[in-house]
Amino acid sequence: MAEAHHRHSERALRAHLILVYVFLYVPIIVLIFLSFNEAGLPTAWTGASVKWYAALASNETIQRAALNTIIVAMSSTLIATTLGTLLALGIEMRQKPNSALDALLFAPMIIPDIVLAIALLSMFSLIEFTLGLHSIVMSHVVFNIAFVFAVVRTRLRNFDFSVIEASIDLGASAFTTFWRVTFPAIFPGVLAAALLALTLSVDEFIIAFFVSGAGPSSQTLPMQIYSMIRFGVTPEINALATLVILFSFVALFISQRLNKGVLTT
Amino acid sequence: MQVSRLQTSLLIGPGLGWLALLMVLPCALIFVLSFFERGIYGGIDYVYTLENFARAADPLYLGIFLKSGRIAGFAALIALFVAYPAAYAISRAPRAWQATLLFLAILPFWSNYLIRTYAWIVLLNREGLLNQGFKLLGYSGEPINMLYSESTVILGLVYNYLPFVILAIYSSISRLDPQLWEASEDLGASRLQTFRRIILPQTAPGIAAGLVFVFVLSIGNFVTPDLLGGGHVQMVGNLIYDQFLTARDWPFGAALSFVLISIMMALLFAQAVLTNRAQRGGNG
Fold it and tell me: What pLDDT, on the 0 to 100 scale, is given for residue A100?
């Protein structure tokens, strides 16, 4: 009787878990499915077609936004990965816990986007800084540093620093040691962190929206998507949303393969 | 290896400098701005005042804070009730599957927030999939508008933050010693008793982390109330947005932001204290 009850509750748990996955993925799957809908509006199915993808490819506003997004994401990833990795190296070598520093490096992950956005906008406008793609890059580096730092630091925790010692004892310079010993050991972690940063930057909307300045020249894809949702849904949006979300999934998947647990710790 | 303080400072310096200039400084500026008066044409008059904070306590704005707190609170609780059994189920799955199951649960969390929110508009609008489903089931009345209400906003928040709660609870369950519940069951406790007396208290830090995280991210949210509330549901995030981009009252917007950050910090601090105490309790 207890055994039957046991099996019953195990089955209920499993059913619940399956429902949770359904809840998480059905909206996304429906969206992807509808992006191939012949009819423009995201409603009744009228037959399969890739015409909205074609429309997307020939839409100059979207091409421009895509290019801007690539520039912003690549630049902010490059800067944040470099600075975040160096930070993680420095802090792990110091080996002296500093909780104020930990809090500071954790802050960008939890400050509400809207607050960071207005804070940056206030500062930029106070010093009369010209806004544009470069100000989006500078702002995205802020939260990306924190994520890169967290990922690389976890990787370093499992790294044996005595290897560095050995390398120096054997006569290698600090520079050689870094490139030959330390860097190869943490490289998969750094790459995984960079992919995560890239995804976060590609997807970020609010901060970019505030610090991009007026005018279409510094519109990014999320800003484009937002205005498509907010001010009248255009048929291309499902196709665009599908491409962006598939990009995220692929980048995150590779990131997880490179460094197990990058997303789950 | 002897690493000099200078060497580590060189490594740490650039990153910290970036955060100091583009995070600490702007946030400090917001703090300072909140004590100034609004200029006649939307600028800032550098005259000290506490007026902005007094205004934030005005019933109109206080009401928005309370409403945001209520929405965030519901979102956090619902997410917890959905996530707990899911995390528990993952922890009971065969070892080899657990990493994959967890990855699948967290994957949406790291992907595009706007698009995940938009997906619900597609499902819930008057001509959306759910209404069409109702029609197929024989419903012939007017299509039901499921968008633009407080419940829709809560649904959106739960949807977006659920993965994180699953992760937080899974990691605290996986830290439990399996011998604990074996011992409990051997000693004759029922599964419910084992759960209530052993598992639930031991996973309290995970529960607290999940609740606080969802609450903090929800109360300052802008996109979800904006898109799924369709202008009918105003939360603090929308209010701050309006002060900066529509009303152009930056000092008041700054004061609101400051209050918001203070609420969040207090909660995070409480959670850190709780986690610390639980860890010390576990060791002692």
Answer: 82
> How confident is the model over A127-156, as a mean pLDDT?
93
Is A38 in contact with A46 (CB distance < 8 Å)? yes
Name the residue facing A248 among B16, B110, B264 (closest C-beta). Answer: B110
B230 within some domain: yes
The domain in which residue B140 lies consists of 54-283
CATH architecture of A60-258: Orthogonal Bundle (1.10)
Q: Residue B72: inside a domain, yes or no?
A: yes
Domain for residue B45, yes or no? no
- What angle in degrees, to the nearest 10, is found between the helix axes of B150-174 and B95-110? 150
Q: Report d(CA B117, CA B220) in Å as an integer.
A: 16
| Domain limits, chain A | 60-258
Give the CATH number for residue B85: 1.10.3720.10
Q: What's this model's pTM, rounded to 2 decimal places?
A: 0.90
For residue B77, give every residue at least 6 positions away whose Cβ sits within 8 Å of its Cβ, in sequence order, or none: B211
Which of A66-80, A110-124, B84-98, B245-259 tops mean pLDDT? A66-80
B38: β partners: B44
Check pLDDT > 60 for residue B282.
Answer: no
Res A44 pLDDT > 70 = no
pLDDT digits (tens, 9 = 90+) for B141-167: 777 777 888 999 999 999 999 999 999
Strands B36-38 and B44-48: antiparallel
Total tally of structural domains belonging to chain B: 1
Band of pLDDT at residue A222, cut at 50, 70 and 90: very high
Crossing angle for the helix pair A221-230 and A60-94, to the nearest 10 degrees: 130
Subunit contact B132:A44, Cβ cutoff 8 A:
yes
Cα end-to-end span (Å), chain B: 34
Q: Which of B82, B118, B224, B249 to mutate to test the interface with A (most CBs of A within 10 A)?
A: B118
Cβ contact B233:B148 at 8 Å: yes
Amino acid residing at A32: I
Q: Is B21 inside any structural domain?
A: no
Q: Do A229 and B102 touch (CB under 8 A)?
A: no
Query: Most B CBs within 10 Å: which of A46, A122, A168, as the mutation test of the B interface?
Result: A122
Per the CB < 8 A criterion, the answer to whether B20 and A96 are in contact is no
pLDDT in tens, A54-81: 888 888 889 999 999 999 999 999 999 9
B166 contact residues in A (CB cutoff 8 A): 20
